[in-house]
Write a structure and sequence with these properties.
262 residues, 7-stranded parallel sheet, binds nicotinamide-adenine-dinucleotide, 9 helices, 13% strand, alpha/beta
Length: 262
Amino acid sequence: MNVKDKVVVVTGGADGIGAALCRRFAREGAKAVIVVDRNGEGAKAVAAGIGGEAVTLDVSDGEAMAAMVADIEARHGGIDLFCSNAGIGDGDPEKDNAASSPDAVWQRAWNVNVMAHVHAARAAIPGMRARGGGYILNTVSAAGLLSQIGGAVYSTTKHAAVGFAESLAITHGDQGIKVSILCPQGVDTAMLRQGDAASQPQNLDGVLTPDEVAESVVQGLAEEKFLILPHPVVLTYMQRKTGDYDRWLGGMRRLRAKMMGG
Ligand SMILES: NC(=O)c1ccc[n+]([C@@H]2O[C@H](COP(=O)([O-])OP(=O)(O)OC[C@H]3O[C@@H](n4cnc5c(N)ncnc54)[C@H](O)[C@@H]3O)[C@@H](O)[C@H]2O)c1
């Protein structure tokens, strides 16, 4: 897909990767860019800079998502590209206990990192099917394909997000719906800067700027590839993982030990 003259929605558009996507899509000549975020002021600032529209919304609220999609469809005639990008990350509170996050943290991450993709697809796909096609881009993470050391909640919910995107592609591919997942490693955003994230191993392969990720997205959308990997080495790691799971786990354990200074 080329986003020129397209109606594009980006959740988590107030900051980081989402804001870079909004700006890039506007530069590519999108007809409308709708910047969606729970941070309404941030969404308005990004929208103002690109002549877009801002919507204040919590992506974990399925009813609000459905109402927003209906409103955009009524005003613009349809959504061509829905980027479900908002996500949250929490590290394990006890570094030597993968089950240490409280249930409330697991639930919140499930609601944002997984259910928001479900809400978006449920709301956007009927209109796309009726119009003969559309594109869903879900921001996941390399942590959904490999794993994030010290981030069991993040890794697990991002793996689930990959699973849902596969189901979307398999179920709706023959209905003209294109699906891609965006799976970067480290990207220089507020999320990466929080906590001890700066020392994470996913940053060893280089931290990209949000603009560099947006460039990968524009290329990936043009190629209509399922897997968009701004850090291409992630594909090598995936191949190593599926080639010999136990060996890969051993490597991850060694990396973890190194990170912990042990
Ligand atoms: N930064 C990285 O290193 C990195 C790497 C891989 C994947 N990702 C993924 O990229 C996506 C964007 O992350 P980012 O790094 O730009 O983070 P960010 O924190 O800079 O931006 C995330 C945006 O999402 C919004 N948001 C969060 N929860 C929301 C909710 N419930 N409803 C509406 N908006 C909400 C925030 O207000 C913020 O504007 C996430 O899905 C993240 O998991 C980030």
